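WP5 quarterly update. Target: NLR family member X1. Source organism: Podiceps cristatus. Length: 735 aa.
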Amino acid sequence: VLFILNGLERLNLDFRLAGTELCCDPNEPVPSSAIVVNLLRKYLLPEASIIVTTRPSAVRRIPGKYVGRYAEICGFSDTNLQKLYFQMRLSQPGCSGEASAGSSSGEQENLVEMLSRNLERHNQIAAACFLPSYCWLVCTTLHFLYFTRTVPPSQTLTGIYTSFLRLNFSGEVLDSTDPTNISMMKYVAKMVGKLAYEGVMSRKTCFSEDDLQQCFEVEMKTESELNLLDVFRSDVFRFFLTPCVQPGKEHTFVFTIPAMQEYLAALYVVLGEKKTLSQRVGKELSEVIGKVSEDVAIVLSIISKVLPLRFLPVLLNLLKIFPRYFSRLSAKDQDAIAHTMAEELFKEEDYYNDDVLDQINSSILGVEGPMRHPDEAPDDEVFELFPIFMGGILSRRNRAILEQLGCSIKNLTAFEIAKAMKKTVIRNSRKGLPPSELMDYLFFLHEFQNERFTAEAIRSLRTVNLSSVKMTPLKCSVLASVMGAMCHEVEELNLTSCNLDLSSLRILFPVLLRCKALHLQLNSLGSDACKEICNLLLHDKCVVSNLRLANNPVGEQGAHYLAEALAGNRSLTHLSLLHTALGDQGAEVIAQHLAKNQHLQELNLGYNSLTDTAALHVVEVAKKHATLDKVHLYFNDISEDGKRALHSLRTDRDGVRALVFLTAGTDVSDYWSNILNVVQRNLPFWDRERVRQHLALILQDLESSRRQTASPWRKAKFLRVESEVKKMLGKLQHG
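Structure tokens (predicted):
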């Protein structure tokens, strides 16, 4: 028979003969602790084998003479074991959610490869993954980052970290022999949370032994407190803090997983552990006086019935003043927590960092590119997850899990903090936020998991600028979920250069329907994506009036879908297809369907390799259109004859403006600045040699027209425009 006794530290065993009598008869009724002691003494069932698991602090509770062998389970001491775990876990079927089998398999292999490379660099993550439970946390976080496609997302980042702590510390008491019976997680939140919070406030991730002593031991007064600290040091300390592996920092400690520092700092603040001395003394006095006043009030109420003393009611009220006064002071704690959250969430020095989801991804998979030289000054530490974790901890589900861990956050406390947040967080969010910070704010609202608060927070959010934010499926799900809490239309949604694809558009479809101005430039959206955009524009609830698809590989097939959408759409007034590889065939298809459209006012077909025939056809259709009055055709392959034909077509009907060149006969075009501004904005993304050739032709055209005019005023205008074109050519030549 093999007995496995799991968790010796929970049992208070007494091996003294006076404390536990000898027993060799399995049929004799004795307390369970006596059965365990006699099994370990080998007095009861001596042939049986016994394995006992315990924390290090409780090892010596069994006298050494009863132990045959000690073994310590260390973890993944070999990096290859870590790699094998990640390969098996990340390659499980179905872990990629709704993605297609081919694409998901490739993405899983890529994740394993990037993670393996980061482990080989002897990064801090290799030290963290020495513990298998942290390998679980890494894999679960990667699943969340890469394979979340549902709206709303099925889980939160805070929920992952809270569940991780429950898996490791559920039901754990720090020291079963201590009368306080404090839960392990409560002690960690109090002690390690304080260190984490002080590190966040001072922007520090490495801690010396002096830092640890100052944080842990400065307030230790009693022997019981010192004993609890010893148990913590032997059992729990190495789980949260590990020696730093960076050169020159070998004698310092860092948090095993960087984000855990921010989580514990957030938990420390939300639990109300961040108190001044006066607040702590006030709370203790309030509790003492409150208990005494209850007892005295009972006695005085009995005396007042026997002796008619008039001063007794006054005395009773005086006894109640202090607890009431303290309760008012404690209400200000919730304001302080909300203020801390808002202050950290909208720190201006963090405005131009990557968003927090990209930061987490980099901390796990590393940063692609050359490694930093050891002597190179490190970047400033960033703690943008801290306020987001504060919001996430206040969600109902996470509070319920923390309650199981002995960290109680009452419903009333959460309600008061949320109420105070309306004054601080929502007011600060109304300021213009850079794209990465706006993404962090949307992620904060997702983590908070409070629909009513989210609806109120985004009520004033009419313009959403997320340009250059890498919109992964998770970020698209967060955006769709948060924006789904509001009913009003969005004036402008800017998703320029956001790595969008077909799946992104499908996730965001309900949000895109309610956007008046939609910027989708520079996203590699091909014909498949155009089919989804066609469905969007033909939807009966679509309100999109301004659609920008510049610098996307739309192509001829994509033009067919967009032409179909133009024919049936009733809201679109401005459409930009600048540099979308339409060619003559694509432009012809769009021109054929323009007649069925009754609302379009401006169409941009610039830089699409259009020749004279296609350009003339487009302008001829535009002349007959009821509302279309501006067509952009610059940077196309239009000859001088074609230019003259387009100019004559334009003069036949006022109101139809074809923007082709910077000149209009012997004068400068009224729209020369519009054309040059478009070119200026797109210079980094266009083919430099082709742009240089077009600008050279424009410059020749300007110089020729200037020589033909006799007006000094017009010559001056030509010289001004020529100087702008020469500046652009100079920028191209100098890279």
